[in-house]
Write a structure and sequence with these properties.
Layout lengths: L1 E8 L6 H15 L3 E8 L5 H12 L5 E2 L2 E2 L2 E6 L10 E7 L6 H4 L11 H16 L4 E4 L2 H11 L4 E2 L19 E4 L8 H10 L6 E4 L5 H13 L6 E3 L5 H9 L3 E3 L9 H8 L4 E4 L15 E4 L3 H12 L2 H16 L5 H8 L4
Parallel strand pairs: 1-2, 1-5, 5-6, 6-7, 7-8, 9-10, 9-12, 10-11, 12-13, 13-14
Antiparallel strand pairs: 3-4
Helix pairs in contact: 2-4, 6-10, 9-11
Length: 350
Amino acid sequence: MRIVIANTQAPFVTGGAEEHARRLCEELRDVGHQVEAATIPFNWKTPESIIDHAVAAANIDLSGFFGEPIDLMIGLRFPAYLMQHPNKAVWLIHQYRDAYDLWDAGRSGLQNSPRGDLVRQIIRNMDTETLSKAARLFANSRNVAGRLKKHNGLAAEPLYHPPPMAARLHSGGFGDYFYFPSRISGLKRQHLVLEALALSQTNARVVFTGNADSSGDAAEFRGRIEELRLGDRAEWRGHVSSEDMLELYANARGVIFPPFDEDLGYVTQEAMLARKPVITTMDSGGPLEFMRDGEHGLVVKPEARELAKAIDRLNGDAKLAERLGEAAGEHYATLSISWQNVVSKLTGKA
């Protein structure tokens, strides 16, 4: 089949969603499909620019080029999945969350604009109209599928895939640090972890990796480390190689990942594959689909004091960290998550 992967890109911003799309292209090619990525820029600087990009995407026809038909379009993110194709599968990474769950939580940037509610309604209407016509509709997690059902009344099948480094992750020792790999962003809540470290009774240490969403986010994060006088207990290494990530996972005491209502989150899966316990929060969303409190890690209220207690508990008990990590690895192996299943479902061959 000739297949186009429709995705968005904010220039100079790279994260799990970009890796997701890249790996999907590879997996489809590996089984003999011709695959191209159709990536469009997306700028959400103003409510008006969001609609401009959505309308532009909705007017792009991907059914064929230069007299050659395209057999299948797979849409991943707003507004790319609005592009036209008669045989469209959507594997929803996430919608434009400011029009949905972030609006409900009072965390939407649209709420700062007098036209925000109008833009929100336009986005929701476009999503409902387009996604209801997809030949096959999947979400990359149960959390994302749940949002779609709640807000748009549409049912999507959760379709899980292995994280990027699945085959290379391994367990080492249980060292003297916790690992938090993710881009520096308000929704990832690194600041909550810094506040927890300041309350820690065991002088726990956290290594953070990942670029910041903006120079402002970077400056704010560094400033907060200084304000809380954390010194070398909070180490931010920025972007690191995959080899460095593998070693940081392998030798951590545990992995900390407390985002707000995460879509999926590779971090939890990667930690489980490295046989490390995960510390997360009750409102983290996607991570809770893979782990249970007290069995594969610790799940606490999204409060600095509670997070500090969980960090201290594992920091002071390597045996507990090892037991939870081993159980996490064993549990992940039972989930039967594979790219073969993803490819079969998206191409309608399952």
